[in-house]
Amino acid sequence: MWKTILRRLLIMIPQLLLVSILVFLLAKMMPGDPFSGRIGAHTDKATIDALKHAAGLDQPWWQQYVRWMNNAFHGDFGQSFQQKAPVAEIISSRLGNTVWLSLLALVLTYLISITMALVAARKENSRTDRFLVLYNSFIYSMPSYLFYLFGIFVFGYMLGLFPTSGTISASAEGFFGVLGSRLYHMILPALTVALIGTTGTFTYLRSGILDEAKQDYAKLARAKGVPENKIMSKHILRNAFLPIASTMGYSITGIFGGMIIAETIFSFPGVGQLFINSVLTRDYPVVTTLVLFNGVLAVLGGLLSDIIMSIVDPRIRIS
Predict the structure, then answer these.
(1) What is the pLDDT of residue 264?
(2) Are residues 264 and 276 in contact, defined by beta-carbon separation less than 8 angstroms?
(3) Closest CA to 313 of 212, 237, 206
(4) What is the pLDDT of residues 202-231, one digit of tens each?
(5) Residues in Cβ contact with 127 at an 8 Å cutoff, skipping those fewer than 6 apart
(6) Which residues are within 8 A (CB) of 241 and not within 5 positions of it... i.e. 6 or more apart?
(7) 3-state secondary structure of 66
(8) What percent of the chain shows pLDDT beyond 70?
């Protein structure tokens, strides 16, 4: 198993190299530059060209790429054009917020979707089942930003239950006070992300449970008098979870990229909001580093999904 994991990690090297080249080229193809309009509306071209030369932006793209990758291998992702600080420091200062928000949203997503799938499958064709199916169909067709805005309006402004921006209240003091305030600020964005992200897990798990419940092994267990709860927990659920387990790695690593819209709308100072601001200001070092980071996560998601599958299904072993 470990030899195969090592071999797949080696295979990831050319994949990551290709991702880094594509990321760099896409960033260079962005219209505009990080200097025009920032230092004055009537700045002459010579001044702009001098700034580009100082930043190395007038060199051929492959020279810029080689220099960028060489520095990245040494932990230097460049200097932010806008914030005048190392990119690694800027990202690390916000990464913790995104990690905790993503983990909370991921846990809530699986808790809500699995619970709904179990309830719907056990009460097939009931009003509850039809309501849950209709709900997931509705949110699947609904743009996520509208759902986020609806959550802010209802729970933030109308009911005033949760804050609508920031991470910590100014009045929070002490370790537990800061921790509680941070969790309180994360509940609304994490919950809205979870509520709109249940469709895939709910649909696959509900369909899987209904299909497995009709298999011969389930019928045989019922004929032998095995309790329904035991049949569900010991046999049906294990097989029904396989489609979910096959994509769980991508879900875990992909949720970081999915926080871009949520963090921007909720004014949550995380990596997603930083990415949007960097794109708008043409801050190439920050943009390329964040996109490369998400590319690495996407590649690692495949490896993680395979490992999870080998744990869930004993018949599938990485050997």
Answers:
(1) 86
(2) yes
(3) 237
(4) 988 898 888 888 888 888 888 888 888 888
(5) none
(6) 205, 208, 312
(7) helix
(8) 89
Residue 259, pLDDT score: 78
Query: CA–CA separation, 261 vs 99, rounded Å?
Result: 15
Per-residue burial over 276-293, b if 16 or more Cβ lie within 10 Å, else e, is eebbebbbbbbbbbbbbb
Cα 150 from Cα 94, distance rounded (Å): 26
Residue 79 has phi, psi (to 5 degrees) of -110, 135
pLDDT tens-digit series, residues 137-163: 998 888 888 889 988 998 888 888 888
**CA atoms of 45 and 28, how far apart (whole Å):** 19
Closest CA to 90 of 309, 283, 219: 283
**pLDDT for res 113:** 92
pLDDT tens digits, one per residue of 43-97: 677 777 777 777 777 778 788 888 878 888 877 887 887 787 888 889 888 888 8
- Which helix (H) or strand (E) is 274 found in, with range? helix 271-280
Cβ neighbors of 303 (< 8 A, separation 6 or more) are 5, 8, 9, 12, 249
User: 68 near 23, Cβ under 8 Å?
Assistant: no
Which residues have CB under 8 Å from 164's CB, separation 6+?
152, 156, 157, 188, 266, 267
d(CA 230, CA 228): 5
Amino acid at 64: Q
Q: Residue 178 is encoded by which pair of tokens?
A: 């800061």
